[in-house]
Amino acid sequence: DTMLGRALSLAAQRGGAVLPAAQRQTVLPAVIRPMSSEVPKEDMMKEALITALQPTEVTVEDVSGGCGAMYKIEVESPLFRGVNLVKQHRMVTETLKKEIGEMHGLTINTRRTPE
Length: 115
Prior knowledge:
By secondary structure, this protein is an alpha+beta fold. 35% of the residues lie in helices and 19% in strands. It has helices at residues 2-13, 41-53, 85-95, 97-100; strands spanning 57-62, 70-77, 105-112.
């Protein structure tokens, strides 16, 4: 406590307020660690697309440099056969409705699986 005592004395000499020992708090820096059970957002979105659209190919890529603001999604699915492009994209956006609400930008590319 001698180093703390010297720091408080110095603060008092410079006109700073000094609290009684009972009111002092030690503030330690917080250590932030990623939770090991945390699933990356890309993986969560990919799983949702696999479940809903049964794709033969699917990629979800964070194109914002890792902050999760913008994504590029590519899906090839047999469920897109006979469905126009606008409806294909709507199928993707409906599947990821909650996640899209948290994004700033999204690029979607869809393809029909060849027969």
